[in-house]
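Problem 12. The chain below contains 245 residues. Write out its predicted structure in token notation.
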Amino acid sequence: MTPSHPAPPTRLRSAPVTWLRGAGSWIRGAPGTYVWLAALFVTTVIVHQMSPDFEEDFLRQRSTNIHELSQNPVRVLISSAFWIDGGEWLPYAVLYTVFHAPAERRLGTLRWLAVAAAAHILATLVSEGVLAWAIRHGHAPENAANTLDVGVSYALAGVVAVLTYYIQRPWRYVYLFAVLVVYGVPLITGPTFTDIGHITAALIGLACYPLTRHRHHHRRRRHRHRLRHRLRLRLRRETKPPPAQ
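Solution.
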């Protein structure tokens, strides 16, 4: 009889290694989110090296205010999405991980970017249009046309809203109610042009429902294709004649 040998002990992965692999997989599934977040980290470090006066003037030139939009709208609409007013990066790292990353993983990078860009651009134009109307009719001071307005909150609001369609019922309605409360209540308590921009961005995100359906349809079609392919292979094996003796 051959002597029995004990099975080799299984090598357990350490918790840090497992966590790092999981974090790496999560980041790879949402590349656009974390490239954008890395860019915000770099620009935040740059802002921290500036004097307060220079920082305000520097950010004002990249603001999506009425003055800058009238001079070079494309430049400021793009550049404003890469600077944070206030210099606090860590809260955005949390928000991007909680909202942007899941949205990108579900929608795909291109559709996620389309939602974020639409919310950022259209909400900016709507809010600044309302502000221009208010200035023209004497409801806001003239210097409001050159206000400081940079950041990524409009894009975030749109992405937060579009995630509504990926939450199972009945929690979907609870989530939707929370979104509308968060972005809608400021319009009642004391609206500003940024509050108008936030609720506009959230409504734009909700209007992006067709993008979520297209993604689901593509996944279902791909899943059905794989099932049909497996079924054909199984039938082929079952109907294959046995080899001749």
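Discussion. The first helix runs from residue 15 to 28. Students who got a different answer should revisit the alignment rule from Section 12.3.
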